[in-house]
Amino acid sequence: xxxxxxxxxxxxxxxxxxxxxxxxxxxxxxxxxxxxxxxxxxxxxxxxxxxxxxxxxxxxxxxxxxxxxxxxxxxxxxxxxxxxxxxxxxxxxxxxxxxxxxxxxxxxxxxxxxxxxxxxxxxxxxxxxxxxxxxxxxxxxxxxxxxxx
Length: 149
Description:
By secondary structure, the chain is an all-alpha fold. It has helices at residues 2-16, 21-28, 34-46, 52-63, 69-78, 83-90, 95-109, 117-129, 134-142.
């Protein structure tokens, strides 16, 4: 009885969006024992309905336009995705892509090079909060906007 309920709950969660195995374990924990949850999730994995790899790829696709590689990596790890799976999902995200994403975000938010150190720090904090590395931030903030257009 509990297994059917757990399976139905897991399927309802997966019908809404992809989930990592760790997310489903957390969401199902109040409704069954660890052994029952593992059995249900193992079966869903066998059937191809649950995949951390597919979850990580979907997450990267949905968030990559707004965040840098560092933040994507951190958020996937917080959702229980393994390092190898994260690396595979981020493989297509090269440093050049990070620079282009950072440039697009920066243009949308600021559009003008910082006039002073205080403004430079504000813009850098914005980009850092979005998960871009210091090398990418320095490159974006030192560019002349007319040159990169």
